[in-house]
Queue: 4 jobs
Job 1
Amino acid sequence: EEQQEEEGEDTNPVSAIMSEVSFKEWAAKRFNLKSYGMLGGKPDLQKLTAHDTRLYRPLLPCDAETQKEALKCFDLILKYCNSEDENNRTNISIQLCQMALTLSEQFRDELYSQLCKQTVGCPKREHELRLWQLMLVCACVFPPSSQFQVYLTNYCNQKAETEGESELGICAAYCAARIPQVSVLGPRQNAPLPSEVQYTLR
């Protein structure tokens, strides 16, 4: 007679992996700490991954072209977060998607990393929701790298579990569901239309 599995034991290897990864682990492994002068002592990941830390270099190591666009990306994310004009936010999201579809996979991971960073300790609930909405628009258009996918999905899942049925929690849950799908489908050929962005965020 076969021995039954212990009740409640999680035998899903994907779940086991997901429980061991986090955005901060991704940051510790991948962020460009040397450029931020953090290798002389203990890396101050808490500061670097905080919402209120201004970026003057990309978070991830990248080539010269991506470095320039990464800083432009950060400025656009800040403008999106602070804009009270829905049409302006829609246009910024389309611009970011177009950049991600035109540039390298390095840039896509940089964009997603910056979005994660900006949601950490965001002091204004409304701004945090906007950042998650921007994350969702991106997740409907282009995937992260295969290396980042599990970290990013887990980050979204953790936020969804923490927030529950709130608007923010539902948005994070949609992100967590969409990222594996877009990773299979691959990036879109074109950036979304304004109507598509608005439909995604209904």
Job 2
Amino acid sequence: MSSSAGLHVPPNVLLQMKNIDTWSFDVFQVNDIGEGHALKYVGYEILQKYDVINKFKINSLSLDNFLLRLEQGYSKYGNPYHNLVHAADVTQTMHSIFSESKLSVRCIHLYDTSLYLVVCLCVRARMCVVVRVCACVCLGAYQSKVQNMWPAFK
């Protein structure tokens, strides 16, 4: 379980996050006890686990705004399936597969794994700028593009 130094994470949500690496993680429970913010809390926890926040020096206010805007993007269309819980579930499932299979250690570079998880968070929320930045990162121009992306969420 990561520390929640940058974002306020309710204690009950933190308790649920102890299972985030496993297939049995209950994203619906996190959404219920997190007052409808499953994507925010799952996204934050996973970005912490892959050290994305530290590596790219993302400040907590920008990250909080980014995750809240993702949730707004998923809620905008009222889709009963492709919603913020689904995004949190897909992101956590991919993390679980990376974690349990050791793919993130054996054959996928940290940046590639992190970016794939960010794309999981963003793609259905129509966060095209983020997806484009992730594509640039995968093409090798990562450091400046990613660092310049976060100020947009202040």
Job 3
Amino acid sequence: MGFFGSSDDEREEGTKPSGAPAETTDIVELYIDSINNITRKTDITGQIDPYVIVYANDVLVGKTKPVNNTNSVVVNELIVFKTKGEPKATKLRFELMDKDDIGDDDEVGSGSFNPAVEESLENQLVHLKYKGKDIGSISITMNIKPILLV
């Protein structure tokens, strides 16, 4: 027997005791899959120490951890957030940064992604530019998932 004397295995997940569906809301799971073929150098020696800062509708929603001395790397980091409106209407902006031990971090390039105009949100390449020049890309996957409101 479950809580209040009902059998939990008789009810479907996401339903109320009456059997009515519970209320849900959508969240965004944004996977930063990889940083790819960065051609811009900001360090005198070695390669950049890249990380990505992510904005949704111009609000900072997260950033990845810096990776030392590389121009391409598999990141596999997840950023989760909830939007005020329709998640597919969210405009994403990405800033690729170079972590510096001394002084301020350097901006390597930036790019944007508009899910409203895409057929698929999986395995998308976001092309990065700096002063109008292509400098590489990042790979992302965006999932929109309903979660229960309790």
Job 4
Amino acid sequence: KQVVSTQSTGSSSLTAPLTGSPDTSSSTRREPSRAAGSSTKPIEAILGFIRWSFGSEPDGLYDTLSDAKLSITDQVKVATATLREIRPRLVNDETEYKMLSFTKLMLLAEQYSPKETYSGSVHLIKAIKSFQAGEDYGLSGLCSGKIIVDTVKGDHESCVTEHHRDIANIINNHMKLPSENTSF
């Protein structure tokens, strides 16, 4: 089954054939063995990065990464090489580094378990196109105080680079400062 994915590259669009999509890839992929010591978390993080960055994942990549006995670094290299074959104009020298960093950060976040509950309140400002699940990213289970959640346009990066004034206004409103004093 072939799906055509369009990725915007600034002022123009590039259409490239990809199989699988964020909506259908999980239903078509074969589940790997769940034997003791078997872990799919690095693969899921790699594929999450690919779906977030490229809109869909290459068909068969999940199977390729789960069938091979590769380190996380080697899995990222295989994924990057696969992307480079099908999306050469969108894969650059930083893609592998970003994918590996993202994967390692997701694995660290997954392992983190605070020893005690935070007793204060938290004000979370998150992007509409958020990668994390849950309205408050699970903070209500980690904090005993009030959780305030505000949402801004964009994704994890563009919310800061393109919608920073919205973030500044939220912070100023929370601190009871006039937003006119914000200069960027």
